[in-house]
Batch of 2 targets.
Target 1
Amino acid sequence: MMRDVNVYASISGGGPGITYLAGAAAALDAMAKVKGWSGASAGAMLAAAKAFRVPDEDILAVLVRALNGSLIKPDITSVARGGVLDWDRVGEYVDAMIGKGARMRDATVDLVICVTDLDRRRPMYLSKRDHPDVKVREAVMASSAFMAMVTPACRIPSLGSALSPDVRLFVDGGWTDNTVDSVWDGNAHPRVLLRLPPSDDVRRVRVGDITGIHGAVLQSALWAASLPKSRRSDGVVVDVDGSNDWDFTKVPDVIDTEWGRGYDSAKAAVGVWADRGPT
């Protein structure tokens, strides 16, 4: 029934909460014909994998490898997270899933990756249609460059030519558009946004609470960016059953459990939406 519905999917950022979102994306992919995937930050890696039709078991295997602590570089300036992401390793995991040298044009369906363009102070949407020659590895690395305040920002050389690479600097797409859902507004089919639900936890911070202050500042900065931006009413926002605990060290059993929670919650939410009859 639902498999006959065409949709466009967006995957929000979520750090190591990508485990829940990976399960949710698998559920949506099993229930509908997804004509395109978009994402920012961790969601960009997942969107790329789905757009290249990477099997779910292979995505899970990469998550197990990535979330063993190897993504983190210890850095005292990043107290709240215990380090900063190793972007080269992010690129290695992208290559492991979709193949070295893969470009946006090679995706089997539409693909959009959001990065933040520092020159223009706004989001930039790299797409299969408009940026076919951009290397997916470079786009995902830039979209995942979360801690640009304490480490150098990313470049995307394949935006230029072999003789004149692009010299602009880019950081995490989640800073400016963490949902990337409005990119599908011009299409005929409805869109489904998969996101981790906004936190309702209110914890008062005090002077001297460096970790608490740091975390609160980051959440405040991302609040507007994490709101859905689509103007359409025929899609659905799926608040996946999970959370981002910023824990980049997870054992395989935990990853499997979180993946399952994401799958079950998205399947239920999308099923209810489908039963209502998407217009």
Note: Confidence is low (pLDDT under 50) at residues 76-83.
Target 2
Amino acid sequence: MTDPAAQSSSAPESHALPTVEIRDLHKSFGTNEVLKGIDFHVNDREVVVVVGPSGSGKSTLLRCVNLLEVPDRGQVLIDGVDICDSGTDVNAVRRKIGMVFQQFNLFPHLTALNNVTIGPRKVLKRTTEEAEQSARSLLDRVGLADHAHKYPAQLSGGQQQRVAIARALAMNPEIMLFDEATSALDPELVGDVLSVMRSLADDGMTMMVVTHEMGFAKNVADRVVFMADGVVVEEGTPDAVLGSPQHARTQQFLQQVGDH
């Protein structure tokens, strides 16, 4: 009798804790104040898409989540652990976070397969056999099973980005961060990458996505956050923020990107 009761009482608490919680985050580069007191969260299995004009602080916010940029002030909590706290094992927390960049950052001297296996082998101490089995499965998932032995230079930009996604997934992250993952791609290659991202969302991956792809934001996001000038101006469902924005700054931005 006691076990089910204990389980049912504890389950809501674990789900109530956001995967990512940001409190009063500030970041400046010299005299340029990029983030001006951001409060932000991403819940478990939620897809949050961050949109806004260039220079609004979107990418800096994303990079603060895994301390690629160190905040000047505020807190960044991953599963309730403040990674800005000096006593936190940042590397252990980072292993929960996969990140895909605008530039693919693949190792040019390694094949697609070896780009995906290197993290699990070096960091997670997987055997070569284990790492390769997982990597082949992930390459298949992103539609590149037949390209495992090709080098980055032999792949299109879209294929390289899909290898980068497989590489991030190989570390079994709890959350995936995407920083303008399609903006360096030729237009005809964008769809394949967005399709992979959409499939991750469908599978329940927790995701924080900075993008200019309004269609992706409309169709895939659980929540859209509009940033401008270092602050969160507006957030809500895609229908609310993109369909009937309340703030003049949001309306202006959507007009400029040609969204209606």
Note: Residues 1-14 have pLDDT under 50 and may be disordered.
